[in-house]
Design goal:
Layout lengths: L3 H15 L10 E10 L2 E15 L6 E8 L2 E8 L5 E8 L50 H35 L1
Antiparallel strand pairs: 1-2, 1-5, 2-3, 3-4
Length: 178
């Protein structure tokens, strides 16, 4: 006999296989596509704002998004695995130090801004498989580049050295005369 928790976890896995939900945290600016049905027509309306709270409770997970609309603060709580949500897109990552950002309700203007978290890209894809090295994908070594390089670099490096050596005896000879 399955417990309610096992049933909820199974339903979450089933929903995640159908729909991709990105990792986002409180402080992030998210754009939520909400399905709106008007009569027989269905459209998607986007709600963009700062995620101020996130609740992780398996199937009952939800998050709250706050935005300023015409000078008024508007908050909306969405179920994370609900059918009304079409898409979630992370616009900016916020650098915050707490889980619930309810203090933003009292703030307006510049004091309500959240600093952006800069994520470093190391240039390695975790999902990408490393390529096997074969003779086909290795670029051939060109001999001409090796021959050209010393001819171009050698005069540029040697010329200042020769000038410096010519200048040194002149300065020494002038000091010897005195």
């Amino acid at each position: 006999m399955k417990t309610i928790e096992e049933i909820n976890q199974h339903n979450v896995k089933q929903i995640l296989s159908e729909k991709k939900i990105p990792d986002f945290y409180p402080g992030d600016v998210v754009k939520v596509g909400v399905r709106i049905t008007e009569g027989k027509k269905e459209r998607i309306q986007y709600f963009e704002g700062v995620c101020i709270a996130k609740k992780n409770r398996d199937l009952n997970s939800s998050f709250t998004v706050r935005k300023i609309s015409f000078g008024e603060g508007v908050e909306r709580t969405f179920p994370l695995y609900g059918t009304l949500i079409d898409s979630i897109k992370v616009i900016r990552s916020g650098k915050v130090r707490r889980a619930k950002l309810y203090y933003l309700r009292d703030r307006t203007g510049k004091s309500a801004r959240i600093a952006e978290k800069i994520r470093k890209k190391i240039g390695i894809d975790v999902d990408a498989k490393p390529e096997t090295v074969t003779e086909d994908n290795v670029a051939p070594v060109v001999e001409a580049t090796k021959e050209e390089a010393p001819t171009v670099e050698a005069p540029a490096v040697e010329a200042p050295a020769e000038e410096a050596s010519k200048e040194e005896p002149k300065s020494e000879s002038s000091s010897e005369k005195k």
